[in-house]
């Protein structure tokens, strides 16, 4: 099978189920951003040494493919297709990991600036991309009420997880967090 099909040369693409839509469609933008997030998660994994965090990030990549599949599917045809689903346990996993990492961290007393080490910075970039994916999915939900609510919950919790993981990575690396000192 060739990677190029030439079917998108005029600015359209097919959803799972065959429906063609413009590449500018909010659904395409949403799952494209989830795909970008998945790539950033891969970059983060390449810079983290903690085995538990790496294993969780691998699970997250799998769930992001699940989210992307749901977003890439024509909602009218989705009931007839075998698209994997998110489960409440996927969100619970993120919450348990957040709690586990928070046990090792000092309470936050100031806003934190991204930086200090590549792993920390990449995790903050992934967090920002996750927030963008969440915003796009909220916009999509406003025009397509069939959007699975767990997708929004998962992306919201994932951005929290990535923030705490950035702090945890700094902790494991012995890197001091950069506290924001507002100019007065």
Automatic annotation (TrEMBL):
It is found in: Cytoplasm. This is Corrinoid adenosyltransferase. Belongs to the Cob(I)alamin adenosyltransferase family. It is an enzyme of class 2 (transferase). Keywords: ATP-binding, Cobalamin biosynthesis, Cytoplasm, Nucleotide-binding, Transferase. Residues 3-169 form the Cobalamin adenosyltransferase-like domain. It catalyses: 2 cob(II)alamin + reduced [electron-transfer flavoprotein] + 2 ATP = 2 adenosylcob(III)alamin + 2 triphosphate + oxidized [electron-transfer flavoprotein] + 3 H(+); 2 cob(II)yrinate a,c diamide + reduced [electron-transfer flavoprotein] + 2 ATP = 2 adenosylcob(III)yrinate a,c-diamide + 2 triphosphate + oxidized [electron-transfer flavoprotein] + 3 H(+). GO terms for cellular component: cytoplasm. Its main location: cytoplasm. One of its GO terms (molecular function) is ATP binding. It comes from Flaviaesturariibacter flavus. Pathway: Cofactor biosynthesis; adenosylcobalamin biosynthesis; adenosylcobalamin from cob(II)yrinate a,c-diamide: step 2/7. It comes from the Bacteria. GO terms for biological process: cobalamin biosynthetic process. Its EC number is 2.5.1.17.
């Amino acid at each position: 099978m060739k990677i190029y099909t030439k079917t998108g040369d005029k600015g359209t693409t097919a959803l799972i189920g065959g429906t063609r839509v413009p590449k500018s469609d909010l659904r395409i933008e949403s799952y494209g951003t989830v795909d970008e997030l998945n790539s950033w998660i891969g970059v983060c994994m390449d810079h983290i040494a903690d085995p538990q965090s790496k294993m969780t990030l691998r699970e997250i990549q799998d769930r992001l493919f699940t989210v992307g599949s749901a977003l890439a599917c024509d909602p009218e045809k989705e009931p007839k297709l075998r698209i994997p689903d998110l489960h409440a346990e996927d969100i619970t996993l993120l919450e348990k990991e957040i709690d586990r990492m928070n046990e090792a961290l000092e309470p936050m007393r100031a806003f934190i600036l991204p930086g200090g080490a590549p792993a920390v910075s990449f995790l903050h970039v992934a967090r920002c991309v996750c927030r963008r994916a969440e915003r796009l999915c909220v916009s999509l939900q406003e025009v397509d009420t069939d959007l699975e609510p767990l997708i929004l919950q998962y992306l919201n919790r994932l951005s929290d997880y990535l923030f705490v993981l950035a702090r945890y990575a700094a902790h494991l690396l012995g890197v001091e967090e950069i506290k924001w000192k507002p100019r007065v």
